[in-house]
Amino acid sequence: MMMVMSTCELCGREVRGALRTVRVEQTAMRVCHHCARYGVKVPQIRVGQKRSCKPIMPLGVAVKNQALGGKVEVVDDYALRIKKAREEYGLTQELLARRINEKLSVIKRIEAGKLTPPLEVARKLEKALKVTLIKPVEDGTEKAWGFRKLELTFGDIVEVKN
């Protein structure tokens, strides 16, 4: 039986057996047990397990689109459009999830209106279902975290004296 020798990426020491994966200054490294104390343990990913959740775009957030040179956002009635188009194509939520390579739970939450699809997912859905989900944001109507930009009101101008 042959023993596998590995090299520590931090100190260069030859190690028999398994190395440990740790994060040292924002870099994942395979190190010996002596050097493991200089980093934070990185959890091992099992086969078939996704690495992390995708970031969720808050409702009404406008995102800069480099290709168009302007800002875009997901339409307000995205849930209804997606569900209607999916049913017209005769797809189940599971089939749609597989087709666009997303989790079934993500599709369910999007159709229920509980999750605004990130632009990447919205583009996949647009392509798969032939619907429009992304619209450009007009000047002056840009939304930030679900609220309109603050505008000047009469109360801002008038100073009340007692």
What does this structure look like?
The strands form 4 sheets. The chain has a 3-stranded antiparallel beta sheet, with no helix packed on it. Strands 6-7-8 form a 3-stranded antiparallel beta sheet. It has a two-stranded antiparallel sheet with strand order 1-2. The protein folds into 2 domains: 5-41, no CATH class; 63-148, lambda repressor-like DNA-binding domains (434 Repressor (Amino-terminal Domain), Orthogonal Bundle), CATH 1.10.260. It has 5 helices and 10 strands. The longest helix is centred in the middle third of the chain and has 11 residues, at 78-88. By secondary structure, it is of the alpha+beta class. The N and C termini lie far apart (93 Å). The protein has helices at 78-88, 93-100, 104-111, 119-129, 154-157, and strands at 5-7, 14-16, 20-24, 27-31, 40-41, 63-65, 70-74, 134-136, 143-144, 147-148.
Could you list some keywords that capture this structure?
434 Repressor (Amino-terminal Domain), three-stranded antiparallel beta sheet
Give a brief description.
With 162 residues, the protein is of the alpha+beta class.
Biggest sheet record: 3 strands, antiparallel
How many distinct beta strands?
A: 10
Rg calc: 25 Å
Kindly report the spatial arrangement of strands forming the biggest sheet.
4-3-5
Classify the helix fraction into a percent range. 25-40%
CATH architecture of the largest domain: Orthogonal Bundle
| pLDDT averaged residue by residue | 77
Shape: flat
The CATH superfamily title of the largest domain: lambda repressor-like DNA-binding domains
Distance between the termini: 93 Å
Strand content: 15-25%
